[in-house]
Amino acid sequence: MMKRIAAALLALLLPAQAALPQTEDEAQARKARSILQLQAEGVPTIAHLPTIETERDSTRRETRAVVERAIALAIVAVKGETGDHDMGQALIRQFNAEGFFTPKEQAFMNEPTPSDQERINFAWRYEGVHVLLWALEINEDLGRPDKICDVAKIAETLRELGTDGLMQRARLRNQDVLLDAADLIYRYNWAVVDARIKGEAPPAGLDSGVVYERHYTLNWLIGYMDQEWDDISTDT
Fold first, then answer.
1. pTM higher than 0.70 for the full model?
2. Which of 186, 63, 75, 83 is nearest to 126 (CA)?
3. Closest CA to 10 of 56, 62, 69
């Protein structure tokens, strides 16, 4: 959010001939496309919700880092779903995933008997895997955030490719495509949060958990506020 506020202030301070208006045009065009799509789906929007980062202001992740993040999320999600500590350790060895985990993830993987709430929280990370496999062009379609992802398909993909296969096949999508997805999920999440504040169900069949996890993952993917994975915020 600080980046977005700073960009707005710069727009007021810089002279008209500066380069900023071009990037502002990019951000405004992205916002307009998102709003049109949401309106077509019957999802509420507000005109004054800010734009997100431009290509110039966003972070371009290394493909290897995205692959490692996808594998780490898949492993913590499996342990979250099953509660099987030994299986989690076996998956770390199978995917050569030592060093892929954040501090919070590592603590979870080290704990033989995590709490039920911890397990639930980490099981939701399958949704992040879904986003990252799409971002890496392993999966073709991201789809609407109105249902949970196909966990069986994720498991099959990772089992078939392994870490080396993922590294070889992965092609991180163009930054403008990732930003388009980030802008859209930002506005989906506003609609979901607004409905929750009003005591209403998520609009247009959206799944609030899926929306949140996608927003979290895409914010990491574009480097929102330069936050590390464990500290990602999903401001709306």
1. yes
2. 75
3. 56
Q: Is 41 exposed, middle or buried (0-12, 13-18, 19+ CB in 10 A)?
A: middle
Cα 151 to Cα 15: distance, rounded to the nearest angstrom:
51
Question: Which pLDDT value is given to residue 18?
Answer: 41
Supply angle C-alpha 176, 43, 232, rounded to 5.
50
Q: Which two tokens stand for residue 45?
A: 């929007």
Give the tokens for residue 221.
């993917």
| Amino acid 183: pLDDT | 98
* Region at 162 (left for phi over 0; alpha for psi -120 to 50; beta for the rest): left
Query: Quick check: 77 and 129 in contact, CB under 8 A?
Result: yes
Pairwise CA distance, residues 82 & 84, whole Å: 5
Measured at the CA of 219, the angle between CA 216 and CA 222, to 5 degrees, comes to: 150
Both tokens of residue 12?
């007021």
Dihedral class, residue 190 (left if φ above 0, else alpha if ψ from -120 to 50, else beta): alpha
pLDDT at 22: 56
Low-confidence residues in the chain, pLDDT < 70: 1-23
Question: Residues 123, 129, 131, 134: is their CA dihedral positive or negative?
Answer: negative
Q: Do 221 and 182 form a contact (C-beta atoms < 8 A)?
A: yes
Residue 76, sorted as left (phi over 0), alpha (psi -120 to 50) or beta, turns out to be alpha
**Which among 130, 53, 65 has a CA at the least distance from the CA of 100?**
65
